[in-house]
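dude i think i finally got it to work??
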Amino acid sequence: MQKGRLIIAVIIALVSAVSYFSMNQTNPVTGEKQRIDMSPSQEIALGLQAAPEMAQQFGGLDPDPQDRAITEQVGKKIIAASGAGKAPYEFAFHALADGRTVNAFALPGGQIFITKALLSQLQSEGQLAGVLAHEAGHVVARHSAEQMAKQRFTQGLTGAAVIASTDPGDPSTYKNAAIAQMVGQLISLKHTRSDELEADKLGVRFMAEAGYDPRSMIGVMEILKKAGGSGGPEFFKTHPNPENRVEHIKQAIQDAFPNGVPAGLKK
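look at this
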């Protein structure tokens, strides 16, 4: 019986591994080779399908027409004037009504959202550009598609581990299954933190190309820190601590502008 479970587990693990490692797509904007199993058009369709439900979770669209207008205006400017516009996505920018949750997020394919709670705390158009450019970075870097492929891979390995280590006649073996699931989750969290830092780097690039001072993004990190972004151990977060992200942002600015940030960029 145990031998049969092991054989099934090995087959599941091999199929998951072969499927995952055979995926190879080159990102046209970043030049990065990625393991993704969906097309840009599928990402767009997925994002459009999920957008209404996601908006509803945050109270729907912001009733203030000025909030909606400035969000859309700055977002469109970033896409029109930066490398983000070279990506094959249908970007749209939405202000949400939620006045308590400090958040911004992007769905696959270009649907980008910011809550009123965060928007109301931003002190300049440049800071709004920093938030939206960061989220556009997630879309362009195809982070959601990457994460979904990774999750399917880790779920396959976790399923194989559960089959191999769980004995229906011995309840104690279910602890092994729980450990395997935790490992899979931590792997996903590690990659997500890496994605956040890459989105910061792309955000610096996109907002500067659109005429905004990338140093404004540092002010956004200060706002997030005050909102409680630094509480708790960083290892168990999907977002790196704001103060740690500041150092990466400063380095990204230095790399992009070794001779200093050009004068005249909007803050």
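The chain has a mean pLDDT of 80.
im so relieved honestly
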